[in-house]
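Dear Dr. L.,

I hope this message finds you well. Following up on our conversation about the binding site, I have prepared a predicted three-dimensional model of the protein together with fructose -6-phosphate. For your records, I am including the exact sequence and ligand specification that went into the calculation, followed by the structure tokens. Please feel free to forward this to your student if that is useful.
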Amino acid sequence: MEVVIYPNYEAMSKAAAQMVARVLNAKPNAVLGLATGSTPEGLYRELVRMHREEGLDFSQVTTFNLDEYVGLPKSHPQSYHYFMHEKLFKHINIALQNIYIPSGTTDNYEAFCRWYEERIRQCGGIDLQILGIGADGHIAFNEPGSSLGSRTRIKTLARQTIEDNARFFDGRVDLVPIYAITMGVGTILEARKIMLLASGKSKAKAVAATIEGPVTSMITASALQLHRDVTIFLDEEAASDLKLIDYYRWIQANKPGAPKT
Ligand code: F6R
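The resulting structure of the complex is given below.
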């Protein structure tokens, strides 16, 4: 795992966007795994800016989103379909047929989940997966206790996640869906390259457990320790509980001059 720490959210988002751009420049038809939530908004803003001002091209890109609330139609302002179109897709030159987001309204979830996994495989697998992290250490909606081998399926959201996400539903816990359809931890670990972003003090404990704690299904993000190419992008507050913070800073400062491997 590589841990990189930036002074604030904006700087972290810009650095993360640079990594996405490097992947797209090397492979214009890359398959991206995308997250929603407040954390990647700055990254998406920066990608839109790079598209407009620097010609970053999405015309051959395919995307798979991590998750969607069960029961929300695509037109619902809090659905992840709506979020992705508003924050990213409608501002870039991605082909609509190359966008995949789990359905929150299918009448056969089991078949849909199987199809989603199959579609990822048919598209060649995910080249770069973007992740946020929940305060309980979840990635996608793989709540504590989720199997580290899990695949796309329906999950019951933890109470903490429902309370955390009530801020998007006028502060009303009763309006937050109880179920989500989500890629599994096993699905995520198959991505060739993974980046996880975290910002703010409320994520500091989960971030420390992810990077420095044991690999455990109680913090599903800790499974990323088993992956060979993960970069963790943090702002100062999200990094504030890390025991080896000085070491990560030392590595980050010396990286530009390091011998090529
Ligand atoms: C969303 C997702 C979730 C969020 C996490 C953090 O697609 O997969 O795991 O990344 O709940 O959400 P924010 O960024 O809103 O704090």
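In brief: The helical segments are 9-26, 41-54, 80-87, 109-122, 159-165, 185-189, 204-212, 245-254.

With kind regards,
A. P.
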